[in-house]
Amino acid sequence: MTLVICSIALTASLLTLFSGFGLGTLLLPAFAAFFPVDAAVAMTALVHFANNLFKLALLGRKADLSVTLRFGAPAVAASFLGARILLWLSDLPPLLEYSLAGHPAAVTPVKLLIAALMLSFAALEASPSLADISCDRRYLPAGGALSGFFGGLSGHQGAMRSVFLLRCGLTGEGFVATGVVVACLVDATRLIVYFRHFSSTGVGENASLLAAATACAFLGAWIGIRLLKKATIGAVRRAVALMLAVFAAALGSGLL
Question: Cβ neighbours of residue 168 under 8 Å, at least 6 residues apart?
Answer without folding.
Answer: 64, 67, 137, 140, 175, 178
